[in-house]
């Protein structure tokens, strides 16, 4: 049986029987026969403040979760530029993950294509893309098409083309 708090939440619910969808809530219920069952429910989170607050911009960027990034940007665009303890922002994470569409989205939202990690001593997004994926990767080609700078972290060299 659903609790009063779940009844008061805004949004539409769609029962998903076969597929487990990315954002789901597991509801367990006991039938009068004592049997337990689980339903997977997809919630329309377009107006759910709690869902957006629970998202992590770095995790969304590193996993290529555009839905989450769009929701985050819609609520507070400044969160896209939030840095972690190592000075990485969502663009660095998207580059390392190799997610071209996310990289494009973040640059369109104003993230600096040349911003370095580690409080300015680390690598630029282009350096990280080359190091992680090689010089022929679509993320590398996109960043180069924008004129991004390949800035290695202190103590490292630029990535050499092995082809």
Task: Explain what you see.
The chain is an alpha+beta fold and 163 residues long. The protein folds into two domains: 11-43, no CATH class; 49-145, Ankyrin repeat-containing domain (Serine Threonine Protein Phosphatase 5, Tetratricopeptide repeat, Alpha Horseshoe). It is built from eight helices and three strands. The chain has helices spanning 4-8, 49-53, 57-63, 66-75, 90-97, 100-108, 125-133, 138-145, and strands spanning 13-16, 24-30, 36-43. A three-stranded antiparallel beta sheet has the order 1-3-2, with no helix packed on it. Strand 2 and strand 3 (36-43) form a beta hairpin. Helix 3 runs parallel beside helix 5 (90-97). It is globular and about 40 Å long.
Keywords:
alpha+beta; 8 helices; 163 residues; 37% helix; single chain; 12% strand; three-stranded antiparallel beta sheet; Serine Threonine Protein Phosphatase 5, Tetratricopeptide repeat; disordered N terminus; globular; 2 domains
């Amino acid at each position: 049986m659903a609790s009063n708090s779940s009844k008061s939440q805004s949004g539409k619910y769609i029962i998903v029987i076969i597929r487990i969808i990315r954002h789901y809530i597991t509801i367990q219920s006991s039938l009068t026969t004592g049997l337990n069952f689980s339903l997977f429910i997809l919630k329309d989170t377009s107006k759910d403040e709690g869902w957006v607050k629970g998202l992590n911009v770095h995790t969304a960027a590193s996993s290529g979760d555009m839905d989450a990034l769009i929701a985050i940007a819609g609520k507070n665009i400044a969160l896209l530029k939030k840095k972690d303890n190592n000075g990485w922002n969502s663009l660095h994470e998207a580059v390392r993950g190799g997610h071209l569409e996310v990289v494009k989205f973040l640059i369109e939202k104003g993230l600096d294509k040349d911003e370095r990690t580690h409080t300015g001593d680390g690598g630029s997004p282009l350096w990280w893309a080359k190091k992680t994926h090689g010089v022929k990767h679509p993320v590398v080609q996109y960043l180069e098409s924008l004129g991004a700078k390949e800035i290695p972290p202190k103590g490292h060299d630029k990535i050499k083309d092995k082809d």
